[in-house]
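Repro:
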Amino acid sequence: MKKVYIIEDEKDISNLYKILFEREGIEIEGIASSGSAAIDKIEELKEKIEDIVFLIDNRIPEKSGLEVAKRIIEISPLLKDQIIIATADDTITKDEVKELGIPHFLRKPFSLDELLATFDTIENNGE
């Protein structure tokens, strides 16, 4: 069972994700509201990072979601399949995300079912 690490600066949205994942029996590894906080936590988690799915909003303070994703991939290139970039930001495209090797991209607003389906895809590919 994979855990999820939520990187989202809007508290209402991160709380919604938290409730959704907990209801599905998915453990929350943590929630960060800025890129810098996320990277600090990721550095701490290095040893057990392969069990984590990262749900990253691209528009977060200090560092963008893509910058956070790049750091995760630097730590372990295999983790690119465990990153979900979620954004309402029109300046970022699915192609840009794919160029980083990240297959999971959700354009906000998306349904909670879409989010869970993406998480399930990641979890099922890892086994």
